[in-house]
Amino acid sequence: MDLVRLTPQHNLSDFDCGDSDLNEFLKDDALNSIEQRIANTFVLVDESNVVAYFCLLNDKVSQEESSNNKWKKLKKEFPESKRFSSYPAIKIGRFAVSQKYKGQNIGTDLMVMLKDMLNSNPNYSAFRYLTVDAYLSAIGFYEKNHFKILSPQTISDETRLMFFDMMELG
Questions:
Q1: pLDDT for position 143
Q2: Alpha-helix residue ranges (DSSP H) falling in the chain
Q3: CA distance 11 to 6
Q4: Which residues of the chain have pLDDT under 50?
């Protein structure tokens, strides 16, 4: 399997992760988001099959979005002179695995690949955190992949803001 940036040549017609919003983004919006420089989408392909995908965009972890307790712990990681009201992050805007490949640990393997890709390439924008607005049903997956809840409040009825500190990778 190969992890590559999405191009118009990828056949997306058979991709189905079981979530119409995630399917629709990949098929209808992902290429436009790349062209508009809003988000970059990467696909995991097996021969010509799109197995999974994620998209990345810029974000921040800020004091106003986190609980006071969590923010105090985060800012202690920085020297006094570098304690700001927000820190740079990259958001995982979408993350999905085709139903054909579920149950094969591909989501976790892809998350490891994503973190390694960002950690090993200094050409990406400098950032400290990965963030995600996790569907409530996916919180367990992100916790298994060492993400932490940033705020005890839900963003909406369906999502919760979570983060991963890239310094954990060393």
A1: 96
A2: 20-24, 30-35, 68-75, 106-120, 139-144
A3: 10
A4: none
Q: Which residues pair with 96 in a beta bridge?
A: 53
Q: What is the pLDDT of residues 145-155, one digit of tens each?
A: 999 988 766 66
**pLDDT at position 154:** 61
**Residue whose structure tokens are 């049903």:** 137
Going by their DSSP bridges, the two strands 86-97 and 49-62 should be labelled as antiparallel
CB 47 within 8 A of CB 14: no
Which residues, other chains included, contact 53 with Cβ-Cβ below 8 Å and sequence gap of 6+? 6, 15, 26, 30, 41, 42, 43, 44, 94, 95, 96
The pLDDT of residue 124 is 60
**Residues facing 56 on adjacent strands:** 40, 92
pLDDT for the residue 125 = 72
pTM for this prediction: 0.88
Run of H or E residues at 54: strand 49-62
Please give the backbone phi and psi of residue 69, each rounded to the nearest 5 degrees, phi first. Answer: -60, -50
DSSP string, 4-39: EE--TTS--TT---S-HHHHHIIIIIHHHHHHTTS-
